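call fold(seq) -> tokens
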Amino acid sequence: MHTYGNHLAGKRILVVEDEFMVAELLLQTLEQCGAEVVGPASSLETGLAIARRDDRLDFAVLDINLRGNPSYPIADVLREHGVPFLFVTGYDSSVIPDRYGEILRCEKPVPGTALIRAIQDLAPPELSRRS
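ret:
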């Protein structure tokens, strides 16, 4: 088991992923870094409900395809609330709508170190919503 340090201590990170094994790996990686994982949500409906009601999210990791439904409505809510996020997906960037062109896309399977580095770059400590 790889340890990643306490780089995300105190961060509340929403994970939206419908593949159990991928969600479990994301959860383990994030928790090993000290993050509090919200979810994982495995459906569009659950992810939307969490994004709408949880005003203490620091970051989100979104799979694009959730049982045939795109996660873009969740991304829209996160944007409205000022919560940074990234996509973890097997899809090529060409299928992502232009309005999300600037959003980082990590290709599955994403190595834990790459995921942690991306989150640290996108959600620096001074942007923590809980401070």
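Residues 4 and 36 are 15 Å apart (CA to CA).
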